[in-house]
């Protein structure tokens, strides 16, 4: 995601006109907070190479210790994907028998190929709805793995009809997860719940409204994290609603009082209203109830 920021940070001097939206704010119950802290662990697990380049039947692991509840659940990999596409889209589909869940988790930015996907800001028609447009790089990152991943999910859901389907991701992974969830819902998996942590904007207003109307969207931002501020409003991109804005600092325990729920595809009461995207705020991008990308090793390889 550094490439998103450095590519446009100093080139734009105004956000542009906001699209009118509801500015309703609400609080979260303690039970929801517990769920948020659990599902970010699945997003975090997608950064660990043993999971996105593992073996079907293997249990999910996080060597850095940031997915203990996932490990305790005994969740197993049904399908993993990485290094097979130009975009280096990586992640896994897993089955969690403890929580009766099928999970699609998509890794955030790590390789040079990911960064190329991050900065491809032109629109593309994903064919999801009339007048709907998605950010080209994010949609392409989903499209290149769409067929095999969707087939695995179809089979898993059919085999376990009492299980829930979850789509999760952090950073670039959250952007791809947002479009994947929308696509899966439109093609029959209406039950899919999205947990998107630190997602950039992925859609024009028409598509964002369609995804918002689908419901079961949990999109998180954190303080001044610059990534959710991109691509810019002036480029026509808006967010899926609602926004769960984490207002506490980095590396601290998040309480219910630290999460504000904001409605609207554009809402300046949350992350968007904290100023222009700045590299000085990038540390906020890592901390979403925990250090979500802690499994990333040093270096920026072409392929992982």
Automatic annotation (TrEMBL):
Residues 1-18 form the signal peptide. Pfam families: Lipase3_N, Lipase_3. One of its GO terms (biological process) is lipid catabolic process. It comes from the Eukaryota. One of its GO terms (molecular function) is hydrolase activity. Keywords: Hydrolase, Signal. InterPro entries: AB_hydrolase_fold, AB_hydrolase_lip/est, Fungal_lipase-type, Mono/diacylglycerol_lipase_N. Residues 104-233 form the Fungal lipase-type domain. Residues 16-79 form the Mono-/di-acylglycerol lipase N-terminal domain. This is Mono and diacylglycerol lipase.
């Amino acid at each position: 995601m550094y490439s998103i920021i450095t590519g446009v940070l100093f080139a734009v001097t105004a956000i542009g006109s906001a699209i009118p939206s509801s500015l309703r704010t609400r609080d979260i119950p303690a039970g929801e907070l517990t769920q948020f802290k659990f599902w970010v662990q699945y997003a975090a697990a997608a950064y660990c190479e043993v999971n996105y380049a593992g073996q079907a039947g293997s249990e999910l692991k996080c060597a850095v210790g940031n997915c203990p509840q996932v490990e305790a659940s005994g969740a197993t990999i049904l399908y993993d994907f990485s290094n097979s596409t130009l975009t280096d889209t990586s992640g896994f589909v897993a089955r969690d028998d403890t929580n009766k869940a099928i999970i699609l988790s998509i890794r955030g930015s790590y390789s040079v190929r990911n960064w190329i996907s991050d900065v491809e800001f032109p629109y593309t028609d994903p064919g999801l709805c009339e007048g709907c447009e998605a950010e080209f790089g994010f949609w392409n990152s989903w499209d290149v793995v769409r067929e095999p991943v969707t087939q695995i999910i179809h089979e898993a859901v059919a085999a376990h009809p009492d299980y829930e389907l979850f789509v999760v991701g952090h950073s670039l992974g959250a952007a791809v997860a947002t479009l994947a969830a929308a696509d899966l819902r439109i093609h029959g998996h209406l039950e899919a719940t999205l947990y998107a942590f630190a997602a950039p904007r992925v859609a024009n207003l028409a598509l964002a409204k369609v995804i918002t109307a689908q419901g079961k969207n949990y999109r998180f931002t954190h303080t001044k994290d610059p990534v959710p501020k991109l691509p810019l409003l002036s480029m026509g991109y808006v967010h899926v609603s609602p926004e769960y804005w984490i207002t506490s600092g980095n590396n601290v325990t998040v309480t219910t009082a630290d999460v504000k729920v904001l409605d609207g595809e554009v809402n300046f009461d949350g992350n968007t209203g904290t100023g222009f995207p700045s590299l000085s705020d990038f540390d906020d991008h890592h901390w979403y109830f925990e250090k979500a990308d802690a499994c990333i090793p040093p270096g920026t390889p072409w392929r992982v």
